[in-house]
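Re: weekly structure request thread

Next one in the queue (224 aa):
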Amino acid sequence: MASGIARRIRILIADDHPLFLVGVRATLEADGGFDVVGEAHSGPEVLPLAGRTQPDVVLLDIVMPGIDGLGCLDRLRDRYPEIIVVMFADVADPPQINAAFVRGAKGFIVKSVRVDDFSVAIRQIIEGTAYQALGMPVLSPETVAADAGLTTRELEILRRLIHGLSNKDIAAELSIAEQTVKFHLTSLYRKLGIRSRTQAARWAHENGIHPGDPPASPVAPLST
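Done, posted below.
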């Protein structure tokens, strides 16, 4: 969706908590830039309702009866890839957040986010300027990587990958063999559920991991 569009943004809300639905609808309608076109109260309702209402955005709770939020996300990405899906959750659970981004969510909002920030958060996600979960404490890249199961070495390689370095250049910087870089990348891809450098770079940006400055001295070859 292009940034700065004049028309109102069509929103479908999927959550099984009536009070939360009422609050979200009221917040979005008070903003003036959104139309709530439908409400789903269970997982099986989401896909048919999306087909009937044709929303721009689906706000989807990660815990839903019938089909959970991640299952709904998979079906939406399959059937309606043009719809932007934003996930909700009661708590900030890094594995859940990572799973949602890897499976195609464009944003993740923890329900403790300030009401005043909610509409702004939705717009940032639509415009592609929000790269991490909103409404949770900002985690260090090291914590995010560790929560995803990455080793220190894999984080070092990921940072150089998103800096644009080739496997050969990464190997030279870290004083390791190029084949070792490939081994670590294979492990990294498996842990994140991705298949390419482009997907790795996207995951890094969505999770607040940026290239940073390369270290002044190489890392010892025997570290993990």
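Confidence is low (pLDDT under 50) at residues 1-5, 213-224. The longest strand covers residues 34-40.
Next request, please.
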